[in-house]
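The following block was generated as part of the benchmark described in Methods. Ligand: zinc ion.
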Amino acid sequence: MSAESLLVRKIDWGTVLDHIPAWRADQVVRLLNLESLKRDADVSVIVLYNVPSRKLGRKDIVKLYHYMVSEEEAKILALVFPQITINYIRDWKVEKHSPGLPTEIVGKIRCPETTCITNVEREPATPRYIVMREHGVIACEYCDTLLEIERIPDFLRE
Ligand SMILES: [Zn+2]
């Protein structure tokens, strides 16, 4: 299949993430489980940057062929990118998904406190955060360091 036909092709099953702020799609992909994306030979990821949008002016879109974003991933995406639209495609049909917000985030985000046990070089602990939505922050469960929700994309782990 040519790259062009893949771009416009309808999707039989997978996930379409729409209304991502312009030029932020890479952060969205990083919030997903990249290791499992890479392992699955059947997965294709198409990223559209800076597409005209009536709602946002400009937006990014991420199309994930043959990958269903997990509920945990959907909740984190909804927290970090409040305008994001998550569409699950099953059997060519689109279902809009409205995830709740996460109460806890495990892995994915590094602690801003460099001396935190999650940042030590040997056998670091897996980062865990409590989400304090009403304060607009997440709190490291090990060292209580607070991280503003809008700064999460700057602290994504590779
Ligand atoms: Zn910490």
